[in-house]
Amino acid sequence: MNNQTVATNWRTKKRKRRWKNWGLLLLIMFVLFGVFPKAGVYAYFFDRGSYQDKYLDSETIVTDLDELSPKTKELAIRFLERCAEEGLPVKITETYRSQERQNKLYEQGRTQPGAVVTWTKNSRHTDRRAFDICKQGSDPYGDEEFFRRCAEIGREVGLSPGYYWKEHPDKPHYELKSWWL
Ligand SMILES: [Zn+2]
């Protein structure tokens, strides 16, 4: 083996190692941003709050802001404060929803009687990162201008308002944008 070959081999090896590192980095990124949030690992370690296990049935409607993840709760409070400043009488109709309740709602209008009220079994209500609102008073869902103004404020404070969704607009719905908070 002459010196030239030794040098070339060494260079190839180094290049290979570098690619290996990139592969490892990609794998780590995939686990961190792809798998962990979906598996609720972040929620488990960093965002547990003091949630109660008494809401696991399919009947109970939870409206308690404490049942939301800390970041969602923070933005919800900011949202409510801003709406109050603007004179918009917002009422929280639901925050956390158990998977049992989500499944039941999903069957409504499909295998069960009633109107279709949800388009997914994977709602962000079930991982404590969404809440629904209506207007206080006698006409909770009829005031278009109310929901339009609220959605503007929701977007302003950093939430994703269902009002703007193209495919399935969901006027009363607000959720956290990111999967990992
Ligand atoms: Zn909702």
Can you walk me through this structure?
The chain has a four-stranded antiparallel sheet with strand order 1-2-4-3, with helices on one face. The mean pLDDT is 85. It is elongated, with a radius of gyration of 23 Å. The N and C termini lie far apart (56 Å). It is of the alpha+beta class and 181 residues long. It contains five helices and four strands. The chain folds into two domains: 3-39; 53-176, Muramoyl-pentapeptide Carboxypeptidase, domain 2 (2-Layer Sandwich), CATH 3.30.1380.10. The chain binds zinc ion. Zinc ion binds at residues 125, 130, 132, 170, 173.
Note the main attributes of this structure.
4 strands; 45% helix; 4-stranded antiparallel beta sheet; alpha+beta; 2 domains; elongated; 181 residues
Regarding CATH, which class of the largest domain? Alpha Beta
On the 0 to 100 scale, the average pLDDT is 85
**Which range does the strand content fall in?**
5-15%
Small-molecule binders: zinc ion
Quickly give the structural class: alpha+beta
Can you tell me the residue ranges where pLDDT is under 50 for at least 5 consecutive residues?
Answer: none
| CATH architecture classification name of the largest domain | 2-Layer Sandwich
- Work out the helicity level: 40-55%
